[in-house]
Amino acid sequence: MAWHGLPTAPPEGMAPRPSAQVPGSESASGVAIGLPLVIGLLMAGGWLALEWFNYAASQFALTSLFGHLTADGATWAAVLATGLWLVDLSGLLYLSIPSEREKPGFWYALVAWLMASGANALLKWWAVTLALMASPLAQPGAPRAAGVALLIPYIPTAIAFLVWTGRVLLVSTMMGILAPALRRLAERVQAWADAHIARAAESPEEPEMIGLGPRLVTPEVHREPRAPEAASRRHIGER
Question: Is 2 inside a domain boundary?
Fold first, then answer.
């Protein structure tokens, strides 16, 4: 390697020198994979909790509207809440992929996601409103501070907005953190597997156990016949 730090070709007839590994590079690469992976998993846990609340609040709000009407054993509230949640979730994940933004179907997915996400936000607002109406703090004769009475009308809107914004931001951040970390982890696992296979191929011991993958058929091992079997074969041959 020259003074400018760029790799140069070795002279003709000279074997390339093995590249010296910088001390601490393995630990640095481990931190580069492990820390983003842990952060991404923590974000994924928070995002799943928000998705759980999103579905539960939508089902509660729809149950208050439809009651316990059923269709083929499932309530209308559960069916509609599941449909809106799946469209909202799939659209959010689809819109977070940068390569999909140039395709013609991107705008259709965007409109479908906005409709489902808006319906879920409205249902969350209605569910929180019903919960506050049943809360002891919202009763007319309940003792409460003046600040609580002023905040109660704005709580449903604030919760619906915070949950909607948190879901969008968490998904976008997770796609940017987890995807590179998982790709680097897969590359390290593949490099370890390739090195293990190469070492096994170069090892002179037990060549019959070397393989590039699981064997579907066990190879036959030729063994010398035992003494009684050899004697019986010679006896048959003499006859």
Answer: no
Helix (H), strand (E), coil (C) string for 98-119: HHHHHCCCHHHHHHHHHHHHHH
- Look at the chain and report how many structural domains it folds into: 1
Question: Is residue 181 a contact partner of residue 36, using CB atoms and an 8 Å limit?
Answer: yes
Q: 178: which 2 tokens?
A: 């987890």
Determine the structural domain holding residue 60 and report its residue range. Answer: 35-136+149-196
Mean pLDDT of the 199-221 span? 55
Higher pLDDT, residue 235 or 4: 235
Does 142 map to a domain? Answer: no
Rounded CA separation 88/110 (Å):
10
Is residue 137 within 8 Å of residue 146, measured between CB atoms?
A: no
What's the distance, Cα to Cα, between the start and end of the chain in Å? 78
Q: What is the pTM of this model?
A: 0.59
Domain-embedded: residue 73: yes
